[in-house]
Amino acid sequence: SSGINAEYGGDVHCVKILSYPAANLAISGSRDKTICVYNLNLFEDASSQCIINTNNDHNGWIWTLNQEANGGTKIVSGSWDSFINFYEIGRGELEKISDIAVHSAILCTQFEPNFLLYGTYSKLVVGYDVRSATVAFKVKQHTKPVLSVASSENYIWSTGEDHALSCHDRRAGKLFKRIRMERISSSIQYTDPYLWVSGYDGFIKCFNQEMKLVSKFDSGHTLPITDMAHSTGATVTASKDGTVKLFTPNLKSNLWNSFMLDSVASCIDYKDGVVMAGCCDSTVAFWKYKN
Hints:
Layout: E1 2-7, E2 12-17, E3 25-30, E4 35-39, H1 47-50, E5 51-55, E6 62-67, E7 74-79, E8 83-89, E9 94-101, E10 106-112, E11 115-120, E12 125-129, E13 134-139, E14 146-151, E15 155-160, E16 164-169, E17 174-180, E18 187-191, E19 194-198, E20 203-207, E21 213-218, E22 225-230, E23 235-239, E24 243-247, E25 255-260, E26 265-271, E27 274-279, E28 283-288
Antiparallel strand pairs: 1-28, 2-3, 3-4, 4-5, 6-7, 7-8, 8-9, 10-11, 11-12, 12-13, 14-15, 15-16, 16-17, 18-19, 19-20, 20-21, 22-23, 23-24, 24-25, 26-27, 27-28
């Protein structure tokens, strides 16, 4: 594998490796209120050449970035300035389409086709119809800020600082199940047919859609997990112990690589052999696994 670091002006709190039609691009957002766009084809060059565009529309820390699922060209950003911004991403340019004033910091997003789910500091999970530009629903199933949100066709899951893992039934329009975890769950991700959950206890848990625990394994991190990325290629975790670990993306979750960072990664992503980490020392780090 090989890696590079790109310097930033503030702690990096969200990263995303983009999919088709924006393949070979990645984005990051930080506490310096900047979104950066990276060209992964320039990976082997000097780090400064990888950043091909920047955006400073937000007036607060940028806490979440996402790409519209299923080949969407839209990018969404959420910030402590209480605004959500929508962009079209072309050849690396971020063209702003619209924004939403939310009246609370936005801490997490899940961008379905034409539909945005977001979690707020004010303890809400909100569904927003992008085409009609209207709020479809608001649910308050947490007593503290919402940290992560994931979804399937029938369910919406969320975690909060209240240690709760909550499941909202979209068909019934009400709470399906709520589990109080021993520690905070910092990251959740749904990859059909399982919900993957990681957090401060250092474990990765796997639930089915009905919230029954299917598997649980110790990541081996010595401090809390800060973020997790799960895909068909790998399960990747970052931790306050300064390490990044890669596991097989199945229920056995065998460790197949691990490396130490110069700083703690607060966010992580993985796609097609590339690991992207946003770090607390104001850097973004990339590793590419060569065939």
